[in-house]
Amino acid sequence: IIITKATLLIYPYSVMSREESCGEGSGVEILENKPYTDGPGGNGQYTHKVFHIGKHIPSWFRSILPKAALRVEEESWNAYPYTRTRYTCPFVEKFSIDIETYYKSDTGNQSDVFNMSAAEKRQTTIDPIDIVTDPIPPHEYKVEEDLRLFKSVKTQRGPLRDDWIEEYNNNPGKTPIMCAYKLCKVEFRYWGMQSKIERFIHDVGEKVMARAHRQAWCWQDEWYGLTIEDIRQLELETQLALARKMAQTVKQGQPRTVELLMSSVQQERANIKHAKTITFSNKCIQCIDI
């Protein structure tokens, strides 16, 4: 079960990284992906990524930023069931987002997972997310990602009803369940824009988290049964595909870091024994056009 849960967490992010790389103003570069010891949460996997976020920034904010600022760096320490992720923008010194996550086998009824102080609790807003009942903007709705309709072929799980949490609480332990507790800390210390930016980050973060977890559920027929070795191979395939995509858009005169990254990924693939080919669904292949 632990392997299944860890696979659930990693697979969707590999797919979404490919989906994000669909043209100018978008894209993900995976700079590092390696195991670590004695780090956040103990032993785990460290990743360092660069997100090109131009298409996700509202026009009023994009207009005041230089193009070099339209990139965000992500460092992530995944030591399931604990993860820590930090986002920074090299151009904006007083900005950061720090997210700690604990995965628990409950329905979100623990009150102090992060052992916060009394002062921290007073500054914290609790915002429950229900992946079934929370509204979805019409332009983002997809039938194949409707949890009220989806039923897994491999696991026979689903569809989920609106009262799925209450149903579990009335019969605890009957089926597996997992809640992601996330503590998000945002720093944006620029006078005059702080409240507006923090509100924007909150709204976007909530939307991204809800969609990511809906997709994790609806894509279970793609990740169910994969081993952690399969997932590591998939991550390398994703890293290479993203490097290829970024190489198509890199401008003349820029450092050729993309080619160096592709070379290192290809070497890493060659070092993996008994590697198997893991294919993505058509939606992702069409998106990155490789």
TrEMBL record:
Transmembrane region(s): none
The residue ranges of the Phosphatidylinositol transfer protein N-terminal domain are: 11-239
Instruction: Please give the GO cellular component terms listed in this UniProt entry.
Output: cytoplasm
MF (Gene Ontology): phosphatidylcholine binding; phosphatidylcholine transporter activity; phosphatidylinositol binding; phosphatidylinositol transfer activity
Among InterPro entries, the record links this protein to: PI_transfer, PI_transfer_N, START-like_dom_sf
Which Gene3D superfamilies does this chain map to? 3.30.530.20
Q: What is this protein called?
A: Phosphatidylinositol transfer protein N-terminal domain-containing protein
